[in-house]
Write a structure and sequence with these properties.
Layout lengths: L72 H13 L2 H7 L1 E4 L5 H7 L3 E4 L19 H15 L12 E4 L17 H7 L2 H17 L4 E2 L23 H16 L16 E5 L13 E2 L3 H8 L3 H6 L4 E4 L3 E2 L2 E2 L4 H11 L5 E3 L17 H6 L4 E2 L4 H14 L4 H17 L2 H4 L17 H14 L1 E5 L11 E5 L6 H5 L22 H11 L3 E4 L11 E7 L21 H11 L4 E6 L7 H6 L2 E6 L6 H7 L70 E3 L9 E6 L2 E5 L4 E2 L5 E6 L7 E6 L3 E6 L7 H5 L3 E10 L6 E5 L5 E5 L1 H6 L5 E7 H6 L9 E7 L4 E10 L4 E2 L6
Parallel strand pairs: 1-2, 1-11, 2-3, 3-4, 5-7, 6-8, 7-10, 13-14, 13-15, 15-16, 16-17, 28-31
Antiparallel strand pairs: 8-9, 12-17, 18-30, 19-20, 19-24, 21-22, 22-23, 23-30, 24-29, 25-28, 25-30, 26-27, 26-29
Helix pairs in contact: 1-13, 2-12, 3-4, 5-15, 6-7, 6-15, 15-20, 17-20
Length: 871
């Protein structure tokens, strides 16, 4: 939900060309099977003029819709009566959404806050227990929901009692809760081509959300990702707007119920959010929160395709996008939010902002932004900035900067949704129909739906030697770091924002891919062996190798190229080793997007795109294995909803102006009908460098395979990301927010100790060193101890460098971000062998030192360069 603007990237990669050729582009309203009729009734808010001609929107070119729910005169009269009783302070409270880790029930009572949310890393008790408890029990969630609701209904101060609405990112199931069913991420669901399945997933998710007290999910994502380097690609159903449009109504109706039926917004359903409006999947080079440099036709026909069916299905909220169109932030685009969405398309629910996204508008901050509200964002998501935003919005209403008619319009929309949901009569969450029915979490019925979704989402890319399906009576080796790893198979947005730092016991109602395979193989009389590294005890008849991307979310998942392993490739080496032993290999790739894996496909006998399947690993066994009678229990049904790249930069073939993928949209083999894939080209199409080798701390993450290490008095501790501390407490590393959630790391010394970045394979930086490349460190000095401080590098036993760093730190202003450049020649002069760096960066400091790091990379654009000779 929360992300950051990207910093400078020193490596330049060719832009990925559009994969939507001009002759295939849809046009106008006919592409959406809609008629462009008269403009819907306006709500009294006039869109501001577009800033530039290139960013001009003409609402008449967009679909004209009517709200699918007829206006209820009694309901509207209730709204009017409530508005008449509410003070300005109460009205402003309704347009504010605060995070449960930053606001208390007492804050809700005092400020009459309209909504709370639990962000990706928020949980009950987080406000009093920094770091929180991602493993909070369902009862704790229900209890906190009751507390917030009761606070909102406290009218002892003489104010109007208006129930809170509690939102959460239930994006692939109720994914913040231990024990919940985890459905495949949308990238896999798109391959099923099964809208009815999407509807059933929505209904199951809604029931599980309701059991723990929430009534609003920030889903479904209706993005149309056009560049797979984007870290949110897995949140989109497809690159093809037709697939997204075909799923939109089913997803909304699954979550909310069908308009016109008794089930619509009843106690078993939740409010849905169509998001992110608009074109978050169309940004330049796939940059998260970036700019969609496209025309209005493409904006409407491609990226807007999912919204008309979603609105027709009764979507009650729409979330505005962090991104921009033609340089103009969506949170400030009144032409689209008000002119198109509310007026032309007749949307009568409310627009919710994204995580402090309003603060990115020109002239705005997280605490102060009338522009986003005036543009049409009805409720501002101000998770940790809500108090400042409330105070300033109140002043702006009283000064006239925010018009009272606009405030009344927003509050009317919010009240309308709350009344439609029946919140005023529902009582506390624990007293509602599904409140406390925790048996719904991971119920057999819901898991069966998820398992079906896994089966139908698998796409068979190669089966040249017909190694699939596998007889369960054979000896089967299962290997790879994804084989027995539910966290990895579930991806980001799983129990926490990035889906990292989890353990097997966090998934009590789930099954890993290995467990699912073993269960069926052993039941049929075969033999299954798990060896993560592939070093088997007894020679198998066949090997199933499960590997792929580690979990990530949003901007931390952005890539420069689509190469899975651009440099060192342990997976490929393992496949070749097994093949040399005469063992057929089936590769099962876990990924949130198509990746360039031509080398791995060539080396494998069969190759399966499994996406991010979630909690039901047995769904993979259902398809890969024959039944115990030797027949085929389940054939492959999945078809690519994203074309598969031919090169790591996904450019068209030379001389071909059209996009030419390795496997086209809609590709997918079956047992009934297969085809020879042949040998694929192994030229990645770009310099074969690791896309993160030039940046080893960025977006709050290490490069894939790297390790963070702290060392105090020779005793070490390791992790792939914070929190991390030495056993004696001499040093601690924690994740903190800078430009986005957990995109910086704070290192605090309570004794003399060191922290080191350890590469998974030695780095060769001789050319970079000779070429005057620098180690760029974006940092903020909070405090400096009295002792020495050194920048460290290591290249093996008795091969290390120390560059004095204490004087530099003492000379920097406290509390200000700086980008310091340390020439690699300084590191070499300090004693490091630049041809085999194992620890390319580390810091040693004394008690009392505290430094926050945002980015560590190689480049040449420092704000201040260290003088080696002086040091």
């Amino acid at each position: 939900m929360k992300a950051s603007t990207r910093g400078h990237v020193s490596a330049v990669v060719p832009s990925i060309q559009s994969r939507w050729p001009a002759r295939r582009r849809l046009s106008g309203c006919l592409a959406l099977a809609l008629l462009c009729g008269p403009v819907a009734a306006a709500d009294g808010v006039k869109p501001e003029a577009a800033k530039t001609a290139s960013a001009t929107i003409d609402p008449a070119h967009w679909p004209a819709l009517k709200a699918p729910i007829p206006r209820d005169a009694k309901l509207e009269a209730r709204i009017a009566a409530l508005l008449a009783k509410m003070s300005v302070e109460e009205k402003v409270g309704q347009i504010v959404q605060a995070d449960i880790n930053s606001a208390t029930p007492e804050d809700v009572r005092k400020y009459h806050i309209g909504s709370v949310l639990a962000g990706g890393n928020s949980e009950p008790g987080g406000i009093s227990e920094p770091g929180g408890n991602y493993a909070a029990a369902p009862q704790e969630w229900l209890d906190i929901a009751d507390k917030f609701y009761n606070a909102s209904m406290d009218a002892s101060d003489g104010k109007v009692a208006i129930p809170i609405i509690f939102g959460i990112d239930a994006v692939h199931g109720h994914n913040n809760l231990i024990g919940a069913t985890l459905f495949p991420h949308n990238v896999g669901l798109g391959a099923t081509r099964n809208p009815e399945l999407i509807r059933r997933i929505g209904a199951a998710t809604a029931a599980e959300v309701r059991s723990t007290g929430m009534e609003w999910t920030f889903a479904p994502t209706l993005t149309v990702p056009r560049d797979d380097r984007w870290g949110r690609t897995y949140e989109g159903y497809s690159e093809d707007p037709r697939v997204v449009a075909s799923y939109a109504a089913a997803a909304i109706e699954g979550l909310q119920g069908k308009v016109g039926t008794k089930q619509f917004l009843d106690g078993s359903h939740v409010i849905a959010s169509a998001k992110h409006f608009l074109a978050d999947g169309g940004t330049f080079e796939g940059r998260d929160q970036g700019d969609a440099k496209i025309g209005e036709n493409e904006l409407r026909d491609v990226h807007g395709a999912g919204y008309p069916p979603a609105l027709k299905a009764g979507a009650q909220t729409v979330m505005a996008s962090f991104s921009s169109w033609q340089g103009r932030k969506m949170h400030g685009n009144a032409d689209l939010l008000t002119g198109v969405l509310k007026q032309r398309m007749g949307f009568d629910g409310f627009v919710i902002g994204d995580w402090n996204a309003h603060g990115q508008l020109d002239g705005c901050s997280n605490e102060n932004c009338a522009a986003a509200f005036n543009a049409g964002v009805d409720m501002l998501m101000a998770p940790d900035s809500w108090r400042g935003y409330y105070d300033n919005a109140l002043k702006q209403v009283k000064s006239g900067e925010i018009n009272m008619a606009r405030l009344d319009d927003a509050v009317t929309r919010i009240l309308r949704v709350k009344l439609r949901l029946g919140l005023f009569e529902a009582g506390a969450p624990s007293k509602r129909p599904l409140g406390g029915k925790f048996e719904l979490l991971g119920s057999p019925e819901h898991r069966a739906i998820a398992r079906q979704a896994v089966r139908e989402s698998l796409v068979l890319l190669k089966n040249d030697n017909r190694v699939l399906p596998i007889s369960p009576k054979e000896r089967v080796l299962v290997l790879g770091d994804g084989a027995d790893n539910i966290a990895k198979q579930s991806g980001g947005w799983t129990l926490n924002w990035q889906g990292t730092g989890l353990k097997p016991t966090d998934f009590p109602n789930a099954q890993s891919i290995w467990t699912g395979l073993r269960e069926q193989i052993e039941a049929a009389g075969g033999h299954a062996e798990l060896a993560v590294d592939g070093k088997y005890k007894d020679k198998p008849d066949v090997a199933i190798y499960v590997y792929g991307e580690d979990p990530y979310a949003e901007f931390q998942g952005d890539l420069r190229t689509l190469a899975f392993r651009p440099t060192r490739n342990p997976e490929l080496e393992t496949i070749k080793r097994l093949k040399a032993d005469g063992i057929p290999v089936v590769s099962v790739l876990l990924s949130g997007r198509p990746l360039w894996v031509n080398r791995e496909i060539n080396a494998s006998d069969a190759f399966v795109a499994a996406w991010l399947p979630g909690s039901e690993g047995a769904g993979i066994a259902d398809v890969l294995l024959r039944n115990d009678r030797g027949g085929i229990a389940h054939d492959f049904k999945g078809k690519l909803s994203y074309s598969w790249p031919r090169t790591a930069v996904q450019v068209a073939n030379v001389g071909d102006k059209e996009y030419s993928p390795q496997f086209a949209f809609g590709y997918g083999l079956t047992y009934a009908k297969d085809a020879k894939v042949g040998v694929l080209p192994e030229d990645p199409g770009t310099a074969d460098i690791d896309q993160r080798s030039m940046q080893f701390l960025g977006r709050g993450a290490l490069p894939r395979g790297w390790t963070l290490r702290v060392d105090s008095q020779g005793k070490q501790a390791n992790a792939i990301k914070p929190p991390l501390a030495s056993a004696d407490g001499a040093i601690a590393v924690s994740a903190v927010d800078y430009k986005a959630q957990e995109d910086a790391w704070r290192v605090e010394w309570k004794g003399d100790a060191k922290v080191e970045w350890v590469a998974d394979t030695p780095l060769e930086l001789v050319r970079e060193t000779n070429g005057d490349v620098q180690l760029l460190i974006t940092l903020k000095v909070d405090a400096v101890g009295a002792g020495d401080a050194n920048l460290l590098a290591a290249c093996g036993p008795k091969c290390e460098a120390k560059v004095p760093f204490g004087e530099i730190l003492r000379g920097l202003p406290r509390g200000q971000w700086q980008r310091i450049g340390v020439p690699l020649k300084c590191v070499r002069a300090g004693g490091a062998d630049m041809g085999k760096l194992i620890v390319p960066f580390g810091l040693q400091a004394s008690k009392g030192t505290s430094i926050t790091l945002h980015e560590v990379a190689y480049g040449t654009d420092a704000e201040q360069v260290v003088d080696c000779k002086r040091q």
